[in-house]
Amino acid sequence: MAPKRQIALAAALGLAALAGLGGLLLWPSASGAQEHGRQIYLDNCAACHGADREGQADWRRPGPSGRLPAPPHDETGHTWHHPDRVLRDIVLRGTAAIVGQGYESDMPGFEGVLSADEIEAVLDYLKSEWPDRERAFQEQVTETEAGEDRP
Prior knowledge:
The chain is mostly helical. Helix content is 58%, strand content 0%. Helix 4 (84-93) crosses helix 6 (116-129).
């Protein structure tokens, strides 16, 4: 085999090997991405929403402050009722900013704390934990809203 062909073959094999490793080294696997989102959730959300996404007790009734406790992010809550855009906006700006009209909430906005990629990782983690029915419903409301935004 000619030296140029040997070099080209070696380079092609090397690129193929790197591409295979790149999937392992550069991009997290689905479970790695979910673990990354889970860790961000544990670090930033679990103090209020619970390590197992269970929310605070009596989350549907205002507490002594008059504010609603943190809801669960599992299938017993209402997170999965909202489209992606709304979920991102709530995490970014906080519930009071979204609801407006003087509504008060203990849910802060994480703008400047979490990046867009980190917010997406948390949402992906939450979705990965929902049962199929809730995940499908949330996908549908996201798609429906996206279709409404089109001219």
